[in-house]
Amino acid sequence: MQRKPNLRALCRRLPAGGNLPGHRLRFGSGTEGIERLEASLVGEAFSPHRHDTYAIGMTLRGVQTFRYRGELRHCLPGEWHILHPDETHDGAAGTDEGFGYRIIYIDPFLVQEALGGRPLPFVADPVVGHRDVHPSLLASLADIDEPLGDLERLEVALLVAEMLERHSSAPLRKRAPLALEPLSRVRDLIADDPAVRHTVEEFEDVSGLDRWTIARQFRAAFGTSPTRFRTMRQLDRSRRMLAGGMPLCDAALGAGFADQSHMTRMFKRAYGLTPARWVAALAGVTAHP
Questions:
Q1: 196 and 130, same structural domain?
Q2: Distance in angstroms (rounded) separating the CA atoms of residues 245 and 205
Q3: Domain match, 143 and 242 both
Q4: Which CA distances in Å does 19 have to 15, 87, 98, 225, 236?
């Protein structure tokens, strides 16, 4: 991992876009199961949305506010936030100056591997002070363009797993072990081609589990339902197409959505922005809904 960064110096850095109105997004270097993003927001808000990943970020400037589990939260420069998969949240600036942040999106499957099969932890209080964050995890956000190799990928996953367990809202309870290998086959079947809508019978055939066990344990293992997991993989595919310049309609059909309107609804629910605004935020321009 990188050397421990200077927290004050990192917090003084402004995300791309400065104080221009709107959203500015810049993806850094990632790897399988990990995305890193630098963002700023001035004068607009993210609509309520939910990811199927853990979203672990740090405010760099301004005041970040978001509603989470029925409460309005505030995250100041240097503070971190931990958002659990499938938990609805929004995002807005607490002042007219807007705010900037960096964030890691990490696949619950990778966290599950780091936990060695233990249940996914849940952190009810999402705001964490910088003193409660391992310096090496801070370093992973110090330069989001630094490539993440296989070893760094494992280190980040272990650091995130340790952070989640340390701040978990409830003591870990013993429960029956999850059928991770069969559940992984269901997950892989969906991820291999998310445009295909598989039947429950296919899930049972590939896993050897009954449908109720699949429904119960898939969420416990991976933080979301099989249906939601498929939708998010469709959105991953559509994002790649849109980032490459593909028109909205073609990206929707290529990802297996019924039409552009269907993709737009799912996109906004997942990211808090319409596809058009998301593309504009990547390009640093203003877009209409």
A1: no
A2: 38
A3: no
A4: 9, 29, 7, 38, 29
Which class for 129: exposed (0-12), middle (13-18), buried (19 or more C-beta within 10 A)? exposed
Contact between 37 and 102 (Cβ < 8 Å): yes
Say if 120 falls within a structural domain: yes
Residue 103 lies in a domain: yes
Structure tokens at 64: 């970040």
Looking at the DSSP bridge assignments, the partners of residue 72 are 67
Count the domains in the chain. Answer: 3
- Residue 156 falls inside a structural domain: yes
Torsion of CA 238, 68, 121, 5, to 10 degrees: 80
Say which residues have a Cβ less than 8 Å from residue 133's Cβ, sequence separation at least 6: 58, 80, 163
- Residue bearing tokens 């104080």: 19
Mean pLDDT score, 267-285: 87
Identify whether 275 is part of a domain. yes
pTM of the shown model: 0.76
User: Which ranges in 116-210 belong to alpha helices (H)?
Assistant: 135-142, 150-166, 180-192, 200-207
Q: Which of 14-18, 132-136, 210-214 has the lowest mean pLDDT?
A: 14-18
Q: Are 109 and 223 in contact (CB under 8 A)?
A: no
**Confidence category of residue 9, pLDDT binned at 50, 70, 90:** low
88 and 127 fall within a common domain: yes
pLDDT in tens, 74-89: 999 999 999 999 999 9
Q: Which domain holds residue 137?
A: 9-166
Query: With pLDDT > 70 as the criterion, what percentage of the chain qualifies?
Result: 88
pLDDT at 257 exceeding the cut of 70: yes
The CA distances from residue 233 to 201, 238, 262, in Å, are 21, 9, 15
Which residues does residue 25 pair with via DSSP β-bridges, in sequence order? 39
